[in-house]
Input
Amino acid sequence: MYQRILLAVDGSEHSLRAAQEAIKIASLSTNCVIEVVLVAEFSKAKDEVLHSQGKEELEISRRKRISPVEKKLQAKDLSYEVKILHGVPGPTIVDYANKGTFDIVIIGSRGLNTLQEMVLGSVSHKVAKRVNCPVMIVK
Amino acid sequence: MIEKIKRDWFSNIRGDILAGIVVALALIPEAIAFSIIAGVDPMVGLYASFCIAVIISFTGGRPGMISAATGAMALLMVPLVKEYGLNYLLAATILTGVIQILFGVFKIAKFMKFIPNAVMIGFVNALAILIFMAQVPHFLGISNMTYVFVAVTLVIVYVVPRFIKSIPAPLIAIILLTSVALYTNIDLRTVGDLGSISSSLPVFLIPDVPFTLETLAIIFPYSLSLAIVGLLESLLTSSIVDDMTGTESNKNKEARGQGIANTITGFFGGMAGCAMIGQSVINVKSGGRGRLSTLVAGLFLMFLIIVLGNLVVQIPMPVLAGIMIMVSIGTFDWSSFSYIVKAPKSDATVMLATVIIVVMTNDLSKGVIAGVILSAIFFVAKISKIQVTKQLKGDNILFQVKGQLFFASVESFVNAFDLDRKDENIIIDFSNAHVWDESAVGAVDKVILKFRERNNTVTIQGLNASSKKMIDKLAMHHI
Output
């Protein structure tokens, strides 16, 4: 079954639903590891640095975006790791997924920024197109 | 050591060279525009960008960060150039470098943490507003064609990146619109109308100023402002690059490196500069990570100027103004509007005060200093709130003190007690308080002695270790 799951999140409603599906798949096998990945976007780096007093606050504010997902995973007693990547979300997730050994990538169909998706296309679409392993897009 | 050099310089050769070229292309319009803002020949900004980028690639503390002539620095120079001319600017640039080296040596970078983010947000917003205002004379009320060119430039710089990612959009706008202007003979002001470009390498020169105290008195205030603002923007930029790359950098080395770069640049006819947020972000996004990217950016910039110098003077001013409007929009922190609503009132006030003072004085350093002082006052006011609650406990009266007891809170501390009590057992509890300084001990003394004068017995309890030490050392009441 699926042993190593990459769960890409951004703190949105959709990524919570993706987490729900990841939990379903993970509970099918006994020693499954979920890697929860959040991409700190390049285009927001300036804003985020400006609006936090120091590195620690920045780190905490990012962890806060993951914490609802973490709570869900903890509630089911699943083992997981959290990883914060830096870059442009689509290509960064693709790169990370293809470099690691994942059995499946799970991602929400939409993120936080609807306007950007209209112009640039959605992250989930890019991930589905370019990741080598199976991809589950959660609506 | 060799490991470090290898990692800083040669761990990402392909990415660094490509990103460096992209940055060089993006730097040209900015270096020219910032020279025009400062009121000097475009060559001064171009030489500065070349020298600073090349030197900082060796001396800086943050690999992958781009430094060159910047808007923040150019805006500070305007009055100096207007009144005293280029040579005084070069002298001021050298002195700026010396001051920054001293800042680096004395490890001033650690004081950056005393600058609250409200001030930094105010800083970038004020910078954006000033850059925008500096463009207004270049497009307002000149001709209809000027407006058209500004508008077309803006459309190009915002739409083209959706389709072409490899070439910086501002450069596409410049090439396209300069060709159009030349081909159709439209009458527009050009860069050449505001200064000259020479296709030559910078040469070593000593600024032609009298070496007197009077000169020093003229340039020192400018140099100090330049040094502060340059370091502020450089350290902010290095934090942003740190975050984007997920690596650490040496802030004191960066301060020293900025100083060395500015000192040498002054001797080569360039104006003072610092790290650039926008260009550094472009560099990292384009794949630049090491020192090589900054070096390539500087070298390729100079190469382009030598090859294309004659074409640069043909660039229409409205195109440059359009690009600068884009730069100011990119510099502005647009989440400030929600920040004003959501952040604590004191932070929002500090941010707005910083912006207003900068815009009124045209001096970024004044706004920053005022912002820091204002936020320090707010902080003291906030932390000096002290609470004393009274409780009856059997025959005793218990006063519970909560808060920080120091020079700013002693008055409200003393006033919180009703000192006209008589013949009672009084206990003052300090479990939730901290005694910080001599005036705090004095206040505790005063309260106890006043109570005792009226024949009360007073005991104090719950002092934490360091507060107790303070009291034991300085207080009078137990003698």
